[in-house]
Amino acid sequence: KLCPYHFVPPGLLIPLTAIYDTRYGEIEEKQSELRRNLHFRLGLPLDRPLLRTSNALTFGAMEMRDRSSSKSGSSLLRDVHKEIPSSGVSGGIMSLIDGSYEYYHYLHDGIDDNGWGCAYRSLQTIMSWYRLQQYSSINVPSHRF
After folding, report:
1. What residue segments make up the domains of the chain, in order of their start?
2. Where is the UFSP2 second domain (predicted)?
């Protein structure tokens, strides 16, 4: 069964419609090869999955598919590294992340994870990066079950 999916990848000024055979899953080799070919023909980077069905736009009552873990109006900070001034440490090396992420901090969302939540909040921050770069459509894990 053929189904159209609409995308607006970075660098393209107009929307793109790709028609995929829905009998195949996204990781099926035929779909992967088709997406790789589209990336090549459109001059899109080959290191980012920009044309997965989970990254497609939605129309009608829904706006663009939410690619982040949070809903609109989120209290999460995004890309906090951009506003941090240089430390001025002599001989220090600055390394920055490429792409956007949401910053999850302990005691956020009404969860008292002070003293144990740092690693889990770091995991949430990393997962948000994968979602915002469109490598994953899996929700960022929460403390709630």
Report:
1. 2-55, 77-132
2. 4-59
Q: What's the predicted TM-score (pTM) here?
A: 0.56
Q: Rounded to the nearest 5°, which phi and psi values hold at 80?
A: -65, -20
109 vs 96: CA distance, rounded Å: 27
| Per-residue pLDDT tens over the stretch 17-69 | 998 888 876 666 778 888 899 999 999 988 888 888 877 887 754 443 343 33
Give a three-class secondary structure readout of 23-64. CCCCCCHHHHHHHHHHHHHHCCCCCCCCCCHHHCCCCCCCCC
